[in-house]
Design a protein that fits this description.
The complex is a heterodimer.
Chain A (H helix, E strand, L loop, with lengths): L5 H11 L1 H39 L3 E5 L6 H7 L7 E2 L1 H7 L4 E14 L7 E8 L4 H4 L5 E4 L9 E4 L1 H7 L6 E4 L4 E9 L10 E4 H8 L4 E2 L1 E6 L5 H8 L5 E5 H44 L1 H9 L4 H29 L1 H11 L13 H27 L3 H10 L1
Helix pairs in contact in A: 1-11, 2-9, 2-11, 2-13, 9-11, 9-13, 10-14, 11-13
Chain B lengths: L2 H20 L10 H8 L5 E7 L1 H4 L1 H12 L14 E8 L2 E12 L4 E8 L5 E9 L4 H4 L2 H5 L6 H4 L2 E2 L4 E2 L16 H23 L13 E5 L2
Antiparallel strand pairs in B: 1-2, 1-8, 2-3, 3-4, 4-5, 6-7
The chains are: A alpha+beta, B alpha+beta.
Chain lengths: 399, 226
Amino acid sequence: MKKISLFQVAYKNLLRKKTRSILTLVGIGLAGWVLVSLFGFNQGYEASLNRDIDNLGFQMLVIAKGCPYEAATLMLKGGTGLKYLKEDVVGLVAREPEVEGVTPMLMQVVFDPNKGESGGFSAFLGVDPKTFPTLKGTLKFHTGGWFTESEAAEAVFGYEAAELEQREVGDSYLIPEKNVEVKVVGVLERTGTQDDGTIFLPFRTVQRVFGISNELTGIGIKVRKEADIAKFEEKMYALPDVQVVSLAQVKTTIMNLVGTARVLVFSIAVIAILIAMMGVVNTILMSVMERRQEIGILKSMGAQALDIFKLVWLETVILCLAGGAVGSVLAVGTAKLTDVLVRNLLPYAPSGGLVQINVRLVLVTLGVVTLIGLLSGIYPSWRAGRLRPLDAIRSEVES
Amino acid sequence: MSMKIKLVGWLALGLAAAAVALYAAVGCDLNDPDRDVKRLFPESTSYKTLYVSIAKKGGEPLLRKVESRLGDTFKGLYETADVPYTMYQIFRGEELIGYIHGVNQKGQYGGIQVFLALDTKGVIRGFYFQKLTSKAAKLFREPAFGAQFVGLSLKDFEAYDVVTGTEDPPGRVGRIKNPDPGSESDFRAALRGAKKNLILVDEFLLGSPGAAELKSPSSIQLGVQP
């Protein structure tokens, strides 16, 4: 006679009520899907944000007091709405022992009446040819390179800016409003960050073209690894009329904003898991009730309460593991779609993948779902295990 | 963390996002399709947007055919077979009344976006620079310059050589006046852009066998006039 394992018995029991088992499995699968996607978002968003901040090349930005970088100001007033720092501040910052490198920046915006039906804005970022390339070591060139001189009439285009302006190395580019020609000396590789849409010029050239002397709109600061950023930030506030933006703060701010959305989604996930758990308990309990006679016979033939408990518990675990696997496959398969949806919902989304699902994450989720299965299965299994054989057989006959 | 710091941090990244937004459109879409369609086709009630590229619709052979009809090769980093073209089919009720299509064209000092509004036979009823970086931009954007294109079709451009900027035998395209002789290269770029635009509309929407395939629902997005 062929011997069958406990697993096979449990599996066959589940197949006896296929529709009910499949519906339960779908419920667990959906909960697993939400869980994997959520965990994937959790690690993907932070990783992408960290990468964006690292790509900036500096951890701190000193700007003039009064939010000169306010996007609305730039859009409404162009260059006239900007507030400036004195260039001397660069020297003051650079001599601090915590500083590894500084780079002055000067942003200017011009109104281009020939962009669109009613005109548009073009932004230019003036950077220091000596320090900026060092601090932004992650930038790679598609063609060409950085400026040849600190006051050269040259431009480096981010990839998308170059694509829009159809510029290649060696081409000329006309700065709107100022009607000043610059030569394109470099086109950057696509980075997926704001650099893609930026036109870089030497900051001295920007000062000359826009008639600004000894002033900047910002200073990027790279702080030494061993330095206490919080203390250094306090020190920077001692400088007159400056605002310090630490990118660690920016990150915290964004993570706080995103955290609200995350709590909401976590709550939904918890509800989904609770519903799935109830579904599992209900399915297994119904299955136990329907099989009272069968369980009674098993017990009268010598099966111990623990054997029945193990059998029913195994059914729960199989359901949950299969549901978890379905959920994981769904999450991996729809990761890109989830990415697009999340990106549209969030107020700020960094570049790169927002949902990162890896093997470890899938295994953790399977573990969580299995644990939920084990917990959900305790009560029905216990009920099944403590059935009295004679009562069970009699009740079935009576019904 | 104080609200002020949060705000500044937020705005610093807002700027980053704004910088991207300034240059987000790398294809050649209408900036504001609802408004622009109504302006170019006041009688329209709805429009459909079709997305297509030479690479997807015909690959290398189609690229060669388009280049041959243009009389010039696709040049540089950005004029390639995989450039996505956005074509707008314009409707009055159920009736198709025309098309709008734009192309990117390299100018002397920057990118030029040449948009054409065409009737169902491919005759130009509107010429529009959506973007133009040129020393003579103001003159090129004068309505009088665009008006010279109205009534022309691809047939009129066939004898126009985009490389030499001449037409043999002389015809209507050759009579289009350059508003600024000092900006000859931008003038030629505008004409090359217009010819390329007409060829692509002909290949994708009007004349070629592949045009019918474009009407498959997967490549269509519906826009309804407000």
